[in-house]
């Protein structure tokens, strides 16, 4: 599920038990020269070392990095896409992007706002009457801006005890093909009292983005997938990006996705979770993309090619996330975030996590220098690795 909260996922070592899959793949020699993206140069050695360390010491099956800097592209891969065959990771691979989906959702909402088809200060009740009610929840007091900025106070349905059991434990293998409608996900959230009054605090919540997706459909009269496709995917020619809906298999070339289901023991079994329903994440985290498509998308977004100036300013009007509630040294706006790297440089973009896949796409505020990363395993907190790679790229002198 698209709960981009690192602490949900467990950790594991690379030796014995679960580590045997990765160790076997490494024996094939996949830490050698990375696969080359057409027309792309290799990543700088400092980034390459972070990638190799993530596989050899962190135990992730494989890692991809693609960098877009001006007209230049660089690509790097370490580890494997498939632990059974030792197949190397490739630049054209598609993978589940988790909460990076939120940036697409927010972009569509802001485009609709620019067209005056909705207002960010419209209430949820206006567009989805009667849906957000009960247990102290009141859609009349929650605005679209609250939904996108994570300040609605609505309980994150992903943290419902039953959902945690189904999706962040070994029980996931029995539930990975379960299908949920957006209405069902909101109903789960409505079974809980809000975390706080709207606008009075900040807490990461997928519920707001499920509601945002439903508002997109209500305003436009077409599906969320159609709106993302028409407004972003086709104009930018993102050939590896799509909203899967109820599809359980990944289209086209892709890496296998692996999970330990949050089991913390070093010998926790690793399971192939490539096939699954992402309906539990939908507009909050269900999309599929590639490193190349994501650097292209964020470059366009950061450079102001997708939104008029007024909506661009609103999207990037970020506030610091409360300590202990998300990734350290971050700010959050409307579907985008910033991270202050150890060297002091700030990068902008979004990351995402879903069963078997972690990804990060961040770069300079002007969008001229972007870096997309993915690992196809969900243990040992890949965000630490991503931050090290960003530091190596954006803080190391050429």
TrEMBL record:
Its EC number is 3.4.16.4. Pfam families: Beta-lactamase. The keyword Protease applies. GO terms for molecular function: serine-type D-Ala-D-Ala carboxypeptidase activity. Gene3D superfamilies: DD-peptidase/beta-lactamase superfamily. Residues 47-378 form the Beta-lactamase-related domain. It comes from the Bacteria. Signal peptide: none annotated. Keywords: Carboxypeptidase, Hydrolase, Protease. The keyword Protease applies. InterPro entries: AmpC-like (IPR050491), Beta-lactam-related (IPR001466), Beta-lactam/transpept-like (IPR012338). This is D-alanyl-D-alanine carboxypeptidase. The lineage of its organism: Bacteria, Bacillati, Actinomycetota, Actinomycetes, Streptosporangiales.
């Amino acid at each position: 599920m698209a709960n981009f909260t690192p602490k949900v996922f467990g950790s594991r070592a690379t030796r014995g038990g679960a580590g045997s899959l990765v160790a076997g793949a490494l024996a094939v020699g996949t830490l050698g020269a990375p696969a080359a993206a057409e027309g792309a140069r290799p990543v700088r050695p400092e980034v390459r070392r972070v990638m190799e360390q993530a596989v050899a010491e962190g135990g992730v099956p494989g890692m991809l990095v693609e960098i877009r800097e001006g007209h230049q592209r660089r690509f790097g891969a370490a580890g494997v896409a498939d632990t059974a065959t030792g197949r190397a990771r490739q630049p054209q691979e598609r993978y589940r992007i988790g909460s990076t989906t939120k940036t697409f959702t927010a972009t569509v909402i802001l485009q609709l706002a620019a067209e005056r088809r909705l207002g960010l200060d419209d209430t949820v009740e206006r567009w989805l009457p009667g849906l957000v009610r009960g247990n102290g929840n009141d859609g009349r007091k929650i605005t679209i801006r609250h939904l996108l900025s994570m300040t609605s106070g609505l309980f994150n349905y992903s943290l419902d005890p039953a959902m945690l059991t189904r999706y962040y434990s070994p029980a996931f293998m029995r539930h990975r093909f379960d299908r949920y409608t957006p209405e069902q996900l909101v109903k789960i959230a409505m079974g809980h009292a809000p975390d706080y009054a709207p606008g009075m605090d900040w807490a990461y919540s997928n519920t707001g983005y499920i509601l945002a997706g439903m508002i997109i459909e209500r305003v436009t009269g077409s599906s969320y997938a159609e709106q993302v496709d028409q407004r972003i995917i086709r104009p930018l020619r993102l050939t590896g990006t799509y909203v899967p809906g109820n599809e359980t298999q990944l289209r086209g070339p892709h890496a296998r996705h692996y999970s330990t289901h949050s089991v913390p023991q070093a010998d926790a079994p690793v399971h192939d979770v490539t096939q699954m329903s992402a309906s539990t994440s939908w507009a909050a985290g269900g999309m599929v993309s590639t490193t190349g498509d994501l650097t292209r998308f964020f470059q366009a977004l950061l450079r102001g090619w997708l939104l008029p100036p007024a909506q661009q300013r609103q999207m990037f009007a970020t506030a610091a996330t409360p300590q202990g509630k998300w990734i350290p040294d971050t700010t959050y706006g409307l579907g985008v975030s910033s991270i202050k790297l150890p060297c002091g440089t700030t990068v902008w973009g979004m990351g995402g996590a879903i069963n078997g896949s972690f990804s990060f796409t961040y770069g300079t505020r002007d969008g001229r220098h972007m870096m997309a990363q993915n690992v196809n395993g969900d243990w040992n907190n890949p965000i630490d690795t991503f931050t090290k790679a960003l530091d190596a790229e954006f803080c190391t002198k050429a």
